C-alpha cells in the first residue's frame, strides 16, 4: 500500500511523509506567486496545516495531491492579499535577490519585476500554464473560475508581460 | 519575450530552498496538534449546541410566553438590522 492510501486510512507517519514530499514543490510555486521568500515560507506552512485539517476531503481520483495543495496555497495567498492590499514591491524584490545570493541579470530582474506588476488574477494562470504546464480546465478548478475566464486572464496577462518586456 | 525565456527566468527561483522546512518528526507533531485542536473544536461545538438546544426547549416548556416574546424581539431586531444595512448600502451607491 502506498503512503497516500495509508495516510487516507489515518496513518499519521504516512501523511507526514506525503506532505513533506510535496513541501518543496508547494514552496517554489508560492515563491513564484508571491515573489517574497518569507511570505512563501509562511504560506507553505499554512498550506500544510490546512491540508492536514481537510485531508479527509481530498479525492485522489479528482486531482493529484500537488494540484490540491496548490489550490489551497493559491486561496491562502488570495486571502493574504485581501488582508494587506498594499504590498511592498521594492522590499520583496530586495529580499528575493538577497536570499538567492546570485547576481541577477537585467533580463531576470525585468521578468520578475513585470511579473510582480501583474494582478494576482493574471499572475496565477500565467505561472500555472506557462511554467507548470497545467491545462485550462485544471487551472479553472484550481482558481475556481470558468475556463473562459482563465483563457482571457492568461491572454491579457501574457500580452501585458510581452508588451512591457519588449519595451525594455 | 517567449515562453522559454519566461520559464528559464522563473526556474532560477527553484534554487531557493525553504529555510524552515520541518523534519518528519516536526510534521508528525504538527499533524497530532492539528488533529487534537480539531477534536477540541468539535467537542466545544457540540457542547455549545447542546446548551442552546436544551435552554430553548426548557424555555419553551417552562415559560412559553417568554419564549414567544423572545422570538418576536429577535425577529424585529433582525428586520431592523436588515433594513438599516440596506439604507447604508443604497446611500453608498
Shape of chain A: globular
- Write down the CATH topology of the largest domain in chain A: Rna Polymerase Sigma Factor, Chain: A
Q: Could you say which overall geometry of chain B the principal axes of the C-alpha atoms support?
A: elongated
Tally of separate domains of chain B: 2
Terminal CA distance of chain B reads 43 Å
Largest sheet of chain B: none
Query: What CATH architecture of the largest domain in chain A do you see?
Result: Orthogonal Bundle
Mind summarizing the main beta sheet of chain A? none
Number of domains of chain A: 2
Computed structural class of chain A: mainly alpha
Name the poorly predicted regions of chain A: none
Count of strand segments of chain B: 0
Alpha-carbon Rg of chain A, integer? 17 Å
Helical fraction of chain A equals: over 70%
- Using a beta-carbon cutoff below 8 angstroms, give the protein chain pair with the largest interface and the number of residues from each chain: A-B, 38 and 27 residues
Q: Order of SSEs of chain B, N→C?
A: HHH
| Average pLDDT score of chain A | 85
For the record, what CATH class of the largest domain in chain A applies? Mainly Alpha
Query: How many DSSP E strands of chain A?
Result: 0
Features:
heterodimer; A: 168 residues; mainly alpha; Rna Polymerase Sigma Factor, Chain: A; Arc Repressor Mutant, subunit A; 9 helices; B: 93 residues; 2 domains; 83% helix; elongated
Structural write-up:
The complex is a heterodimer of chains A (168) and B (93). Chain A has helices at residues 3-8, 12-34, 37-54, 65-83, 89-100, 106-117, 120-130, 136-143, 147-167. By secondary structure, chain A is mostly helical. Chain A folds into two domains: 1-102, Rna Polymerase Sigma Factor, Chain: A (Orthogonal Bundle), CATH 1.10.1740; 104-168, Arc Repressor Mutant, subunit A, CATH 1.10.10. In chain B, helix 2 (24-62) crosses helix 3 (64-92). The mean pLDDT of chain B is 88. With 93 residues, chain B is mostly helical. In chain B, 83% of the residues lie in helices and 0% in strands. Chain B is built from three helices and no strands. The A-B interface holds A 12-13, 15-17, 19-20, 23-24, 27-28, 31-32, 37, 40-41, 44-45, 48-49, 52-53, 96, 99-100, 102, 107-108, 111-112, 115, 127, 130-131, 161-162, 165-166 and B 1, 3, 5-7, 9-10, 12-22, 24, 27-28, 30-32, 34-35, 38.
